[in-house]
Amino acid sequence: MKDIFEFADELGPTKVLHVYEPMVGLKGVLVVDNVALGPSIGGIRMAPDVSAVECFRLARAMSLKNAAAGLSHGGGKAVLYGDPKLPLEKKEVLIRALAASLRDIHEYILAPDMGTDEQCMAWIKDEIGRVVGLPREIGGIPLDEIGATAWGLLHATEIAVQYLDFELPGARVVIQGFGSVGKHAARFFAEKGVVLVGTADSKGAIYDPSGLDVRCLVELKEGGKSVVDYPGATRLGHEAIIDFDCDIWIPAARPDVINEVNVDRLKAKLVVPGANIAVTDGAEKHLHDKGVLCLPDFIANAGGVICAAMEYRGANETAVFQAIEEKVRYNTRRILDISKERGILPKRAAVEFAVDRIKRAMSYRRWSVF
Ligand code: NAD
Hints:
Radius of gyration: 20 Å
Shape: globular
Helix content: 25-40%
Order of helices and strands: EEEHEHEHHHEHEEHEEEHEHHHH
Bound molecules: nicotinamide-adenine-dinucleotide
Structural class: alpha/beta
Strand order of the largest sheet: 9-8-7-6-10-11-12
Number of strands: 12
Strand content: 15-25%
Number of helices: 12
């Protein structure tokens, strides 16, 4: 990044904060994008290779996601440099230090993302109070444990297949990433008769055209193992997953995994992003031109933040599942109809829809983005 304002446009970001405490090795970045709709919600991503640029892009994705989902929250994101598998006592120090450094940034409500979980949110609650994604015992609706995002992915997919030439039962799915989003997606899809033919985690990919046993994979992961320990499947490097033959391809790991370089290798008819910004703009256009339907990430994967926003207001789990189902189905249909009528990319239809809502909220305020 040449200049910190490189990402600034009419929507934001309104605040960018570098947080640093050498005493405990804390290095982080907070980006608060646009808060015209209300205080921002967005998860804390912990990984050794996060970056300020990733943080900017994810904060914007949250502004669009929260607006499209009709939530009274803007978008923000925090990244924390470090290994999420650190010994717990060391991780706790870092998470508490990050929380303390953000104590007075009231435009940002802390939440979990890759590398952070409800245990981390509980430390933050204890430290500063302003957090969602808490464990049940202290009033939370643990969005990763219940599979909130994956529940939305299933409903987005059920609508999307109505615009395509195949049905969900018997369809073949590939899921990249078998963490909170990936494993619950595998579970929900299997309940609808979808066959998981390939998956991957950071250790590698596995493929079996006759179908993988989802329960066995979940047990392996919960026992601290990798999907590559699955008995009998063909084991490959994690890059190979893009080549797996399937009907539905679900990215549920990192950004930019389908890009201009590898997009031609993808064999699916439908891409349903669990991960944020998983498909580059160029790749998305290429897929559209080839007749492959790629759902906008922030429409399909809004389940987690819908859950978080409802937890903040004291809702219960049943209401959360119902709201995710209703909002994601409605938005997916609406975006696909607009895309079809106007012959535009689903992503463009979704961005216009979200930005319109943000701009209307901005028009009621004295200052536009904060
Ligand atoms: P997680 O940390 O629980 O799981 C991530 C998974 O991806 C792990 O299995 C990891 O091994 C795997 N992975 C990492 N690098 C990989 C690679 N190069 N190839 C294949 N697999 C790889 O994270 P999560 O909560 O499941 O989130 C996954 C993605 O979905 C993230 O991009 C996150 O921002 C996005 N997302 C999550 C939620 C949510 O509710 N958790 C909501 C919206 C979006």
